[in-house]
Specification:
The structure holds 2 protein chains of 2 kinds. By secondary structure, chain A is mainly β. Chain A has no helices and 12 strands. In chain A, the strands form 3 sheets. In chain A, strands 2, 5, 6, 10, 11 and 12 form a 6-stranded mixed β-sheet that branches. In chain A, a hairpin with a 4-residue loop joins strand 8 and strand 9. By secondary structure, chain B is mainly beta. Chain B contains no helices and 11 strands. In chain B, strand 7 and strand 8 form a beta hairpin. The chains are: A mainly beta, B mainly beta. The interface between A and B is medium-sized, with 29 and 28 residues.
């Protein structure tokens, strides 16, 4: 079963607009972590933001915020005031228990294009 | 710059050959993870090492092997290469052995492997 679902293969947004990238997840573990990574065309994976399942507040990191709705099992990434440099692939990921440790499971990604 | 160094950046080889990918983790990080990114499979966890010991094994083929050396750098060895092994191979590091959900992974820029 798909653990992380990103339903938007691609999104096109006008510069300076806010954008929301969707992510839903599936787990029966009450304790988990959710992450967003950015992959620009150069290929590297850049950590953006983290949300823990027990965190009371939604996570924020500069222009990035995470809209965490635990009951709906969604962890949408919100980018405020988008910039041309935000054009990239964005991956939602969840840490899940695995072989006594944890592993990071990724969604298929959303390609975000910011238009000038 | 994540602080994780991967070499080489690009590798072109033929079917049946053997290659070695190298990763130097961030200074002080004891855990090294290997991931494979392909168009059809997305980002797949291969294997994790912590302080020289194998910690968790994911979807790693028997033709592939890895190790982490006393200086904490890691190598991923891919042998009897097939066309389907063409992918972007990422190394990531963290200072945690993989036991907490808050552990952030910092990724290198990846090695793009092309098997012809």
């Amino acid at each position: 079963a798909q653990k992380i679902t990103q339903t938007q293969p691609g999104m096109f947004v006008q510069e300076k607009e806010a954008v929301t990238l969707d992510c839903t997840y599936d787990t029966s573990d009450p304790s988990y972590g959710l992450f967003w990574y950015k992959q620009p065309s150069s290929g590297e994976m850049i950590f953006l933001i983290y949300q823990g399942s027990y965190d009371q507040q939604n996570a924020t990191e500069g222009r990035y915020s995470l809209n965490f709705q635990k009951a709906r099992k969604s962890a949408n990434l919100v980018i405020s005031a988008s910039q041309l440099g935000d054009s990239a692939m964005y991956f939602c990921a969840m840490r899940e228990a695995y072989q006594g440790a944890q592993k990071l499971v990724f969604g298929q990604g959303t390609r975000l294009t910011i238009n000038p | 710059d994540s602080g994780v160094t991967q070499t080489p950046k690009h590798l072109i080889t033929a079917t049946g050959q053997r290659v070695t990918l190298r990763c130097s983790p961030r200074s002080g990080d004891l855990s090294v993870y290997w991931y494979q990114q392909s168009l059809d499979q997305g980002l797949q966890f291969l294997i994790q090492y912590y302080n020289g010991e194998e910690r968790a094994k994911g979807n790693i083929l028997e033709r592939f092997s890895a190790q982490q050396f006393p200086d904490l750098h890691s190598e991923l060895n891919l042998s009897s290469l097939e066309l389907g092994d063409s992918a972007l191979y990422f190394c990531a590091s963290s200072d945690n052995r993989g036991g907490t959900r808050r552990e952030k992974l910092f990724f290198g820029s990846g090695t793009q492997l092309s098997v012809l």
